[in-house]
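Q: I'm writing up a methods section and want to include an example of the input and output format. Could you take the sequence below and give the corresponding predicted structure tokens, formatted cleanly so I can copy it straight into the document?
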Amino acid sequence: MPSAGTAPSLYNLIPSLDMIFLDRPYVSDFLLNSLSRSGRAVLRTAFTEELARKTARPLLLVNDAEAEERCRSGERLYSNSENALDWMLAHLGDLPLAQSIRIMKDKAALRRILGQLDPGFFFREIPAAELPSTDISAWPCPFILKPSVGFLSMGVHTITNAEDWKRALETVTRDAGLNHFPDSVVNQSCFIAEQYITGDEYAVDLYFDEQGAPVILNIFQHRFASFEDVSDRLYVTGEAVIRANLPRFTEWFSKANALIGARNFPAHAELRVDGEHIRPIEFNPMRFAGLCTTDMAAFAFGLNTVETWLNGSRPDFDTLLAGREGKTCSMIILDKPRGLPENAVFDYKKLVSSFQHVLELRKIDVPELPLFGIIFAETDERHRNELDRILKSDLTEFLL
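A: Here is the clean output for your methods example:
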């Protein structure tokens, strides 16, 4: 395999015809190891050159021209980060893929399109400059206020009354200009207000095949500490979560994509389910769960979601889930408390000891991410209280 930094004619050297885009803020060792083993082509940037050098991974780096040629020849694309969307839109803006990206990243546009599946759903688009003068007195409460283009739970507020609205506007004003992400990832120049979607929340890693049919790769249940909680602290998956939701989610994504029209397209979607009613929260294009947390499927049932998509494979969940009954695999996002002192030290050892079985601890030291790290853990029914405890913790108990 050519070493990082070389750029031979690739088509005669590797059997895989895929194009990978790696970018900030975070790339997991799991993904890096997978890419270096498979020899898949990665776009050459200052970030990927430094990544290959610092990690000693033999990444096969290609320049812009060859990357664009590969993309236009119909190769499968994947990115770990939505930061790469700017490159895709700049170089592939005339392709149907770019149109699907634009639809999914613009929450307002997505609401308008998928509104055909849910007539009467309340939402409004509001330019940031008009927020202070917006009259919400006639709007149905509760509702959610969030950036029309967003990532994680940045800028998301639950509004139940006028005081919540006032606090949300103060936060929006305070945080203006503090965005560390490109406008294609987080843009607080325009907001969307939409009715609060009740029910259980789920996140789904999937791809749409060449006919537009959905292929689901993992289903996470997103758990919250309270009604007001909008954090990304805890996600769980496992045999029970997959079996209960796979058929109905597959059917719903088929209906949704009949309107969106994505083809050969990976995505991460968030949904809420109330009884038999399924409503979308958002779609995230060209990637699976953010910050490489799609790796959770490998811990939960041995599935490499990125390789499965790039190979065009379909998971056999009956085989993957056999013998995993009663087990829950969880992903805990260790978000830093607001106002944390710069010299604060986190006690990872104490945190790990509070779980029955930690599968992996990922310490994260990335300035633009307000996180201590991520934990992947396995829990049985007897120890489910450990998940309730971490869900409600502000993590200050683990500060030295």
